[in-house]
Design brief:
This protein is α+β, with helices and mostly antiparallel strands. It is built from eleven helices and twelve strands. A hairpin with a 2-residue loop joins strand 1 and strand 2.
Length: 348
């Protein structure tokens, strides 16, 4: 990462560019850039609660939407390491009579890699506007993974397990369900015990959206106005989304992950080994993590009503940049510019 170390203007350029884009786009959220243990930039913008005029701070906790899938994947792989599950465990072996349309040969590995072929309750290809109300069960009823069974049911198999990659939100709710049935511990407790505790993620968990705490950002559907996402998403995370975190915890997660403090470094290597390439060819996927098409960058990303989030980590160089926003589209202008500005300096 000599390019970043030897160019003191990079930090000021980051600050200048983030400030420019944040002002132009009415960005509401937090941006942080780290190089190893050293912080390059951190700044908060906008409001955590518009109605009360409560500003975001660098300590504000935001929803991370599908960034939650990384936590779910690590929880499952922790259970694989201790023998509670295996990558070859079939979903059917733990589902019993539930979700009968999931094929008998679908495994944990297929689900982790989005190669299961199961029908998805939230098909992103067929989605309309992100602000549409898409949940088929009243969201206040969705506080546990078991409560999501009616949401997952009734979707035919889309393709044979293992034959191709198609991003599947429902697959990660199924993974959360399988994990808690195998371990006889609730999904939320499993994430807390097996990911958050060893990684030191003090601000990351699954609060109910109808019981907001002082440090939680309210998710807004648009760049202005007071319409929130509380009626759009499950009241508590179900495995494919719903975790809340901070930019500091995201940095801590990456450091703990590649230091082998959550699962072994051997398991980490397996999780970030490319298993699939997207149809566009722009990204690759491992088990729970997006992977850059040409270098070693590993990424978590989330997009939902009132949520946009991206955190990118280069394990060899130690560069991390995270953008987290409490609007549906707000993170992307800043995150895209940071990627263009910083990723070429990572020296991968």
């Amino acid at each position: 990462m000599s390019s970043l170390e030897n160019n003191s203007h990079v930090a000021s350029e980051v600050a200048s560019e983030v400030e420019r884009i944040a002002n132009a786009s009415s960005f509401s959220g937090v941006v942080r850039v780290d190089f190893g243990d050293g912080q390059v930039f951190e700044r908060a913008y906008g409001f955590a609660h518009r109605g009360h005029g409560l500003p975001n701070t660098v300590h504000t906790r935001f929803g991370i939407a599908s960034g939650t899938k990384g936590l779910t994947a690590l929880t499952v792989m922790s259970l694989v390491e201790d023998g509670t599950l295996s990558l070859d465990t079939t979903a059917r072996s733990l589902l019993g009579d539930d979700l009968p349309l999931i094929a008998g040969d679908v495994t944990i590995e297929h689900l982790l890699g989005h190669r299961s072929g199961i029908g998805d309750y939230l098909d992103e290809i067929a989605m309309g506007d992100v602000s549409d109300h898409v949940m088929t069960v009243p969201v206040h009823q969705l506080a546990t993974v078991e409560a999501a069974l009616p949401v997952l049911a009734g979707y035919d198999t889309a393709f044979a397990a293992g034959s191709r990659f198609t991003y599947c939100n429902g697959g990660y709710v199924v993974l959360a369900l399988l994990a808690e049935r195998a371990a006889a511990v609730s999904y939320h407790d499993l994430v807390a015990q097996r990911v958050c505790a060893p990684a030191g993620l003090a601000a990351t968990d699954f609060p109910r959206s109808d019981e907001p705490e002082g440090q939680m950002a309210t998710g807004y559907l648009h760049a202005d106005g007071l319409r929130t996402n509380v009626l759009h998403l499950p009241v508590r995370g179900l495995g494919d989304g719903g975790a809340y975190s901070t930019v500091a915890d995201m940095h801590a997660l990456w450091l703990a992950l590649f230091a082998g403090r959550i699962v072994s470094t051997r398991t980490v290597a397996e999780m970030v080994r490319p298993r699939s390439t997207t149809t566009s060819g722009n990204d690759r996927y491992g088990l729970g993590f997006w992977l850059h098409r040409t270098n070693d960058a590993v990424q978590l990303e989330g997009y939902d009503a009132g949520v946009s989030f991206r955190s990118v980590h280069h394990p060899r160089s130690g560069l991390t940049h995270t953008v987290i926003a409490n609007t549906s589209e707000g993170a992307w202008p800043v995150a895209n510019r940071l990627g263009a500005l910083l990723d070429p300096l990572a020296g991968d």
